[in-house]
Write a structure and sequence with these properties.
two-stranded antiparallel ribbon, alpha+beta, 3 helices, 95 residues, three-stranded antiparallel sheet
């Protein structure tokens, strides 16, 4: 692929970034009412290497009482994630 071809092709990354951010917000919104006692937020970059490089994950869920945290990196679209979470929540709150 030549430089000209690369410069003229469609930029799909911008749209994917917007879709991903919407999905992260939808996941946090779906989880929050079912997790009292927890903070759900976007974590700062986790420095993995001594030169300051690291990773930025999608969500962090922190237990308010003990400070323990889990980090989440989601890999589905907003619609699919929300549907799966609603199904999980409803299946665990029946009868």
């Amino acid at each position: 692929m030549g430089a000209r071809h690369l410069s003229e092709r469609e930029n799909w990354q911008h749209g994917a970034n917007l879709n991903g951010k919407a999905a992260e917000k939808e996941l946090a919104k779906t989880l929050a009412p079912h997790m009292p006692g927890y903070n759900i937020s976007v974590p700062p970059k986790l420095q993995v290497y001594s030169n300051g490089r690291g990773v930025i994950l999608d969500l962090m869920i922190e237990n308010i009482s003990n400070g323990r945290r889990i980090y989440i990196e989601r890999r589905r679209t907003a619609t699919t994630e929300a549907t799966l979470m609603r199904e999980f929540i409803s299946s665990n709150h029946q009868g």
